[in-house]
Amino acid sequence: MFWKKKRLEETDKKNKPQTIMDLFQHLKENPDFAHFQHQGDHFSCWISFFKTLVDVDYVHRDVFPCIYDEKIHSMKDIQEQLPIETIIRTKDLSMIQSKLLEGYIIIQKNEADTDCLIIPSIKIEGRQIEKSEVETSILGPKETFVESLDTNINLVRKRIPIPQLKVEELRVGKISRTRVSIVYIDGIANVENVNTVKQRISDLEVANLIDATVLALNISDNDNSIFPQFIDTERPDRVSGAVYEGKIAVLVDGSPNALVMPSTIVEFFVAFDDYFLVWHIASLYRLLRLFAVALSAFASPVYIALLTYHYQLIPKDLLGTLISSRSSVPLDPVMEVIVLEIMIELLREAGARLPTKVGQTIGIVGGIVIGTASVQAGLTSNFLLILVAMSALAAFITPNYRMATSIRFIRFPFIISAQMLGMLGIAFCFIFFVCHLLRLTSLGRPYIEPIYPLRVNDLKDSFIRLPYNFQNTRPMVLRPGDVSRMNATRTHKKKGKHKADIDE
Amino acid sequence: MKPGQISETQQLGPMSGFIIPHTMQISIGILSFQQLLSKDSGQDAWLACLIGGLFSLAIMWMILRLLKNEQKFGRADFFSIHQRLFGKWLGGLLNFFVTAHVVLFGVVFLRSYIEILQVWIFPQLSVFTFTILFCLIIWYIVLGGIRIVGGICMLSFIYMIPLYMSTVFAVPEAYFSNLLPMFEHSPASILISAFHTTHIYLGFELMLYFYPFIKRPQLAKKWCYFGILTSMYIYIILMLMATVFFSRGEMRLTIWPTVTFWKSVSFPLLEHVDMVIIIYYMWALLPSVSMSAWVASRFVKHTFPVIKQKYALVGVLLIFVIISVLIKNGEQVKIANDLYGNIGFFIVYAYVPFLLFYQWLMKKVRGKAA
């Protein structure tokens, strides 16, 4: 439209500094910008930096004494004498500007000279590495990523101490120019996958990039899908495990989450703890999670369908319980379910937004008081309360938070279709979701991979986890550069366990 | 890439040679075929299943042979074979007829399923509403391409396994003496029953349409035979189950023996398993209907290359809806089923062998000319 076009044309073109003096003029308005002339006996220069961005201690202790030293006579001397490994000498104005705003020190001979020395002295402010809070685990490492990219790369690199570990850096965001790192093992990760990731990230047109999850939403294969297509995790051990497998990790500066790509749907139901347990127990937990997802999606819709259309399906013994618990409820099954589901949804959202201590209180108040009160008030039946509470619990058994919210959401289409067509509606809804999952891809790789396309070999680490000596090939879906993880025959040999026969 | 060749990202694995023909065969017929078969050959009807299966194996061999011979002339599917052997116009006409049969295949199954739904679950279910909803899902599937259709077949195969397992529940109540005396019926009556099995075995001839989409056809060959053998095994088991579960008199009166059998199954927290299974059975229907829509839309694209397949698909689905609505009652469903079976019998057992012969003949004639 007219006005929109006009608005778009009104962008400020004059504001861009043309010379270095313009730049300084512009920045001097900021109280934290230090710009002064050093007047020495042998040498004088202009020094400029942001007090809030540089490490002031370091500058005073290590940089200034050296510059003020009497051995220094020229800019070239500084470059040679200063005990810092990377000092850049440049005339590029845009580089000077961006470095200044990242926390570098700029040194010039005269104020108007474009010839500058750029000295790194970045102050890293951020929280300490803490215990995991979102993806908690009982066994295994507890470290989590923090908001600093360099610390995060350090956490990954120390788990993968090989020269083949590649860390490539890209800049994303028209204004923010946020650092984004792509981490993979050269030779194991599929080249095509790496190129796809690089291309998608570098083609990305955004103004700024706040978090890794935003990146995940922007580069996902299908933007309209409610299912997350890349795993986001805060655990460095999970990331390095995935990188060893041949996946690609993407880290964003300022984000405590790493993205792991490509991912299949089964991986969203894998907790990293599973690898620290015996395989039978780990497999059982995985199956439990799968059952939980089914329960969470189907419990209340099936209740509606049975009570509205298919009361023949309810056995005689159960009928008595149902009637006695529903006799005082004036609402239709569907209204009853919607009321209760929304109540639980409110509790969840309130619990997530409130400070921890208040949140707990709200949980107790909401869970117990509203729950029992709504039954006594005759708003819902006891039976449904149990179903809904159980399915809410079951939804959050999913280890990945984004997947858990998707699973929470899925039930609403099911509830509506159950009301419209009964079990037939549930079946339609189910088929729709399955078709949607069939069509989804993650980085061009099929999303429900071990099932379709059927790869029997990849089933070893999906719904069940077989023992480690069966895990000697990397997942086929990744098309890894090096397929075998370890020697297949040697993994089956156990040291000191050569038994030819009983008692021999 | 040569023109007309299919990119590898759109192709199916060799295993689909097993999955797709098998799931095409397994559809609505499974619920009712026992009554039809036992009409002529009573307790020996399982023999008819066996004979029908073996015959379809032979036809499968012919189909694969036909397609393999065709491979050196370009794309090896039914449409291209017709146009190569019979020229553009006659070939196009033949293509239209075979596609019409495929459309009938989809519609008959869809309509029969609605019939079952109306009888067993929702007597008031509107045919129009159901077909519209179903076709929307089919549209969503086929829009994803042959790979997604293949995926639906795969999932359908997995989901159907528990249903076959459910025949175990018949064992405690089975009268195995119902099977005796064996081989009582004359070969002629068994052959008549074997003719009736065409309806349940049809579907594997769709191989003629999606063959070029299989990645390594040589590897798929053994899977194709294995797929038909699996269907044959399932049909024989179900036939035996019905024979030992129902008495001769009951069988004559039961239209859907498999569903009636499920009705007798009950679980502690669930009664009327038949209703759950009928709804669950939608999964057996999906592959057939979506493949039929895929083939029909492909025909439009092949004949009129101007029309994109995605637009043709909408038209095809509209035809599905219209025909389904036009079929009014159970009687007409039965007529449509018979029509589908008889035309299918002709196509599979007469036309395919003829085509193989004609192809060989043309090779001789044109080979000498060249």
What would you say this structure looks like, in words?
- The complex is a heterodimer of chains A (504) and B (370).
- Chain A is 44% helix and 12% strand.
- Chain A has helices at residues 2-9, 20-27, 56-67, 75-81, 93-100, 149-157, 191-202, 212-219, 236-245, 279-308, 316-326, 333-353, 356-376, 382-395, 401-421, 423-439, 488-492; strands spanning 33-39, 44-50, 88-90, 104-108, 116-120, 165-172, 178-185, 231-233, 248-252, 258-261, 441-442, 445-446.
- In chain A, strands 1-2-4-5-3 form a 5-stranded antiparallel sheet, covered by helices on one side. A 5-stranded antiparallel sheet of chain A has the order 6-7-9-10-8, sandwiched between helices. A two-stranded antiparallel sheet of chain A has the order 11-12.
- Chain B is mainly α.
- Chain B has one domain: Up-down Bundle (Amino acid/polyamine transporter I).
- Chain B is built from 16 helices and no strands.
- In chain B, helix 3 (45-70) packs across helix 7 (187-196) and helix 5 packs antiparallel against helix 15 (309-326).
- Chain B starts with 15 loop residues before the first helix and ends with a helix.
- The chains are: A alpha+beta (504), B mainly alpha (370).
- The interface between A and B is medium-sized, with 24 and 32 residues.
Structural key phrases:
heterodimer, A: 504 residues, alpha+beta, 3 domains, 5-stranded antiparallel β-sheet, 12% strand, B: 370 residues, mainly alpha, Amino acid/polyamine transporter I, 16 helices, transmembrane (chain B), transport (chain B), Spore_GerAB (chain B), membrane (chain B)
